[in-house]
Specification:
Layout lengths: L3 E5 L7 H12 L4 E6 L12 H13 L5 H18 L5 H13 L4 H20 L2 E2 L7 E2 L7 H12 L5 E4 L2 E4 L5 E3 L5 H11 L4 E6 L20 E3 H9 L10 H6 L4 E5 L8 E4 L11 E14 L9 H11 L13 E7 H4 L3 H12 L3 E14 L9 H11 L6 E4 L5 E7 L3 H14 L1
Parallel strand pairs: 1-2, 1-8, 2-5, 3-5, 4-6, 8-10, 9-11
Antiparallel strand pairs: 6-7, 10-11, 12-13, 12-14, 14-16, 15-16
Helix pairs in contact: 2-5, 3-5, 6-7, 10-12, 13-14
The structure holds aspartic acid.
Length: about 450
């Protein structure tokens, strides 16, 4: 039998009604055998996520302030879930143990990890699945870097002992000390991907509160179409430009094992969502999505005969590197070189970089322009297809958008367009219209 691995995020485990939906989803398909859960998230806007409460609890404990007033609402949320769903887990005993670990000076990571731990304890009992703790299965080195192969071995060996199981997301432990180590926020997505790889799953279903990725930002384009299929590489391009539905490290384990990731909506399980896979299925449209980011600074360096000066680009890059700044693009002309850098990277380093450019590169002129927006038009079918850039340029010209920069990687899966801040939204709408709704 195929194995499907499911991960449910904070909004999917936020209250009893959501957890009922999980049971329906899991029971609808016998292949759904391993389930990874987050800690309960917000039930309504203004509510607190359990993980945020636990982080506060840790701060309170660190400052030797009595923690009981914060512990009580946390316990209350789990108790409501257990009572309403008739789940038979002894929460008094669980919280007694947590309190005693806190009094024994446990680590802050341990406290924060209890959100996922308790969530998995309750949901495993509710589904009638085994509870498998990830503590000794997801392993990190002493610097907190995931030990991906050791983790895969430990997880596979354990899963082989369980027909069906629920596992907590977000944490594992340091291989040397056995103490809890956390992923960064949103890290249950990574746990799900690791479990999918270890279980040799046919698919990793990532259940959240949206029906997959959209072709453009709905705050800019009205009712953008969902992306049905996308390749891992396209996803990287879009996420890099700010369009993201998952933790960025969640892709790697599934990708290594060639397991497709299906983003699904717990509140609309009938929607097919977005499938992310190595190739991306062939569903016809030239572009897969458009994403954009504001606030880039473009530094342009002009120097006559620059093209004859061997090592010019290397020197320019070394200056930026020495300042600890990473750049996004370097479009070049015969006698000019520009660097497109996120303004947040530059902050107080711009003057120092400009000074070094002047001294070391001896340019004729340097020009700095702030507030440039970058738009990525991404699509694997652009490869070897004629005319995509022309259509992008045409659509922008028709809408009176001046293109400040245009860059197409030789991989031909994206075209990057730089525009002025005032044109950002207009440009995205024009490109969307040209390719999607024309
Ligand atoms: N509960 C953690 C967070 O809020 C991890 C997760 O949900 O993935 O970031």
């Amino acid at each position: 039998m195929n194995v499907k691995v499911l991960k449910f995020g904070g909004s999917s485990v936020a209250d009893p009604a959501q957890i009922r939906k999980i049971r329906e989803i899991v029971e609808a398909d016998p292949e759904r055998r391993y389930v990874v859960v987050s800690a309960p998230g917000k039930r309504y806007s203004g509510d607190s996520k359990i993980t945020d409460l636990l982080i506060m609890l840790k701060a309170v404990i660190d400052n030797n302030i009595p923690y009981e007033p914060l512990m009580a609402p946390i316990k209350e949320r789990y108790t409501t879930i257990a009572d309403e769903l008739g789940i038979d887990v002894d929460l008094d005993a669980e919280f007694k143990e947590i309190r005693s670990d806190i009094d024994d000076d446990c680590s802050g990571n341990y406290i924060v990890s209890r959100g996922e731990y308790l969530s998995a304890r309750l949901i495993s009992a509710y589904l009638g699945y085994d509870f498998v703790d990830t503590k000794d299965l997801i392993l990190f080195d002493s610097k907190g870097r995931l030990l991906i192969e050791e983790t895969n071995e430990a997880l596979s060996a354990e899963l082989a002992k369980h027909e069906r199981a629920v596992l907590p997301g977000f944490y594992g432990s340091y291989a040397k000390t056995g103490k809890i180590c956390l992923f960064s926020r949103g890290g249950s997505d990574v746990t799900g991907s690791l479990v999918a790889r270890a279980a040799n799953a046919s698919v990793y279903e990532n259940w959240t509160d949206v029906s997959g990725m959209l072709m453009a930002d709905p705050r800019i384009v009205d009712d953008p179409l969902p992306i049905k299929n996308i390749s891992y590489m396209e996803l990287r391009e879009l996420s890099y430009m700010g369009a993201s539905v998952m933790h960025e490290n969640a892709v790697f384990p599934a990708r290594m094992a060639d397991i497709p990731i299906n983003i699904r909506n717990t509140n609309k399980p009938e929607d097919p969502g977005t499938v992310i896979s190595n190739k991306g299925a062939d569903d016809g449209s030239i572009i897969s999505g458009i994403a954009g980011k504001r606030d880039f600074t473009v530094i342009s360096i002009y120097k006559t005969m620059m093209n004859n000066e061997v090592g010019f680009v290397r020197k320019a890059l070394a200056i930026v590197e020495d300042a600890g700044v990473s750049f996004d693009h370097i479009p070049t002309g015969i006698d000019s070189l520009s660097m497109v850098i996120a303004s947040s990277e530059l902050e107080d380093k711009l003057d120092e970089i400009l000074e070094s450019f002047k001294v070391q590169l001896k340019p004729d002129e340097i020009n700095v322009e702030e507030g440039i927006s970058m738009i990525a038009v991404v699509g694997r079918r652009m490869f070897r297809s004629v005319g995509t850039s022309a259509r992008i340029c045409g659509a922008l010209a028709e809408n009176g958008v001046n293109i400040r920069m245009l860059n197409q990687g030789t991989g031909e899966i994206n075209v990057i367009v730089g525009v002025e801040a005032a044109d950002f939204e207009k440009a995205i709408r024009a490109i969307y219209k040209e390719f999607v709704s024309a």
